[in-house]
Amino acid sequence: MNKSAMAKLCVLLFGTTLSYAQITTVQDSLIKKPVQLDEVLVEGKKMSDPVFSAYKSEPEKKVFQSKNVADLFKGINGFNLIKRGNYAIDPSFRASQYEQLNVQFNGGTKVMHACPNRMDPITTHVIPEEIERVEVVKGPYTFRYGPTFGGIVNLVTQEVEKQDKGYHGKVNFGGENNGNAITSFANVKYVGEQFDANLNFGFRDFGNYEDGDGNEVPSSFRSTDYGLQVGYNPTDDQRIQLGFRQSFGRDVLHAGLPMDTEIDDSNVLSLDYKLDNISDGLKTLSAKLYRSKVDHVMTNELRPSFMMVEAVSEVDATTLGGRVELEWRPVDQFKLYTGIDAFSVARTGNRNRLVKRNMMTGEPLPMPMEFEDEVWQDSQIDDFGAFVEGKYPLSDKFLLNVGFRYDLVRSTINAPADDFVAEYPELDSRTENNLSATASIKYMVSSNLLLELAYGRGVRSANMIERFINHFTVGQDPYEYVGNPFLDAEVNNQFELGIKANANFEGYAINRLDYGASVFYSLYDNYIVAVIDPSLNKKYMPMVEPTEVKRFINLDEAYKTGFELYGELAFLKDFAFKTELSYVYTKNQDLDESLPLTPPLVTRFNLSFEQEKIWARATYTLTSEQSDIAPSFGERTTDGYGVMDLSFGVRPFQHLTVGVAASNIFDETYNNHLNFSFVNQADYGRVPINDPGRNLSAFIQYSF
Ligand SMILES: [Cu+2]
């Protein structure tokens, strides 16, 4: 590929990602460029980025309001949120969720939840203000960052090594009127020639919010977080980085789950190393090692069921992992990546129940009865992987990417309950061998037009709940679920075709037009879902409806298809109008219904105005009715709705930023199709949880 074509491609790719990024910060070019640790996407090195990737940079300088986890994914087309309240929020992308998405921090660090109800997903162990960028690969199109089934979501925290030398810092406060929420965040960092350090602290206190009709939703929580990161560059070509962070969640109310969190503590320790410019043939060595731990305590003390049974669960999860990658240049322009990685999650913990009343009659028992239930049965899943991936420009217009990955997945259950052994007499540790592969092409038609075509085969072995859960209600419905240790890994064969284009207009009222679309089709083998199994008997409260029990099984036939498209028009220098659309259609052919958790069609209109010292935005999000549902999952049709958000920010002085925002200004009462339903709440039956009504917020930030 000749130089001008390379330059064109860079310009094109950079230009089109701008529409995702909204605002990019231009770095002062340093004379000596420090070694940077790898992320999934590398700004300015678009020839290395995976196909169908996008990122959203948090507009660091132009803030409107304090961030929450939901906001991190709001601006990325195709994302939806699975809400169990206002705290335990999981991202969903194109109807893939949980372990189907490879969600990680900083290019590989993982934090696995301890709670069987996912009260503590990875998004709860981070300060949202700390996340500077969210990177996404939309399918199994790269395997360098671990086994990937439905896509990669990489949350990038502040990249100290990219900053200017000296001291930096910021402190901010935010407040919201709906739920009387307050947020605070402080950060100080030092960047030196060889040494750098970064310290974060955050505190958040949220009350119960009200929906559009003024009904209070039990959703309050408090969380305190801090993180420390130190980096050392022993030579020009090396970097070592050590990170440690802790998060303390307290008194979290989960409207859509049977219990509330008392304690949710997590810590993450990570060590990164990179050696660059090794030789002509071998360019880079990157290594990472991490350990994370989540301790979780939940009770039903504040719930109606407490009067019959007192229940306390104390569970924990330990995640260990690491990777080593070598980047080669066997011939000029040919980038070859080889590596190995490992990922292990182990969970323990019990639920203690004190039965105070006779379940049949409701009469108090003369002697309350105590029970102890194994939640995780001391299970462990280890994944050891090896990958090879190559990027080669076939001509000055074609970039070819081919990758393979092998995973050895070992699952063990160390303390199986008697009834679980009775259900599965052949229960033993098990080893699976998974093969993943991808091939894709980037085709640069002209400097303003890029076409992408990709195929990926992503494989996901069953998670711990799907394998080993023993009569717990872990779904959105009230059924007891039983794991299945003999599940086959589910396979996603995904095809995707996409276009990104732009046009610049000199001397007109219209300045720039960006547009793009991608269409995908996923054919699944062995898709894992839970269905009612008449051969299973209910274990807990056997007389209470529903009396059937669900078991996880593999489906024979299922598929998914859909598209995303966007168009953005920049005009009158400071204005931009953007439209985005995302749609997914899923089919579980075995049961002739949709797959669970399929999001509705979402259309977003965004008008923004941006100058150096003043900026504003109006967003109208139209969510259509969802009637393609999974009745076997307890889903019901969800009405469509439209929500209007307004925000305004100003920088009156050099270091000071002030923002105000109004979300859902028309006080619409609505619930998203992916929201959980109220469970075990005194004031609500099993109806979907409504999202917040009107919310006014104010934000102030001082940075230097
Ligand atoms: Cu929990």
Quick summary of this structure?
With 704 residues, the protein is mainly beta. The protein has helices at 3-21, 69-74, 418-423, 464-468, and strands spanning 53-57, 79-83, 89-93, 96-97, 102-105, 131-137, 152-157, 166-176, 181-191, 195-206, 209-210, 216-217, 221-232, 238-252, 260-275, 282-299, 309-328, 335-357, 364-374, 379-393, 398-413, 430-446, 449-460, 470-472, 480-482, 490-504, 510-525, 528-532, 549-554, 558-571, 575-588, 602-610, 614-623, 641-653, 656-663, 695-703.
Features:
TonB-dep_rcpt-like; Plug_dom_sf; transmembrane beta strand; signal; mainly beta; binds copper (II) ion; Maltoporin, Chain A
What does this structure look like?
- Keywords: Cell outer membrane, Membrane, Receptor, Signal, TonB box, Transmembrane, Transmembrane beta strand, Transport.
- The protein has helices spanning 3-21, 69-74, 418-423, 464-468; strands at 53-57, 79-83, 89-93, 96-97, 102-105, 131-137, 152-157, 166-176, 181-191, 195-206, 209-210, 216-217, 221-232, 238-252, 260-275, 282-299, 309-328, 335-357, 364-374, 379-393, 398-413, 430-446, 449-460, 470-472, 480-482, 490-504, 510-525, 528-532, 549-554, 558-571, 575-588, 602-610, 614-623, 641-653, 656-663, 695-703.
- It has a single domain (3-703), classed as Maltoporin, Chain A.
- By secondary structure, it is mainly β.
- 5% of the residues lie in helices and 53% in strands.
- The structure holds copper (II) ion.
- Copper (II) ion is lined by residues 115, 117, 119, 259, 261, 296, 298.
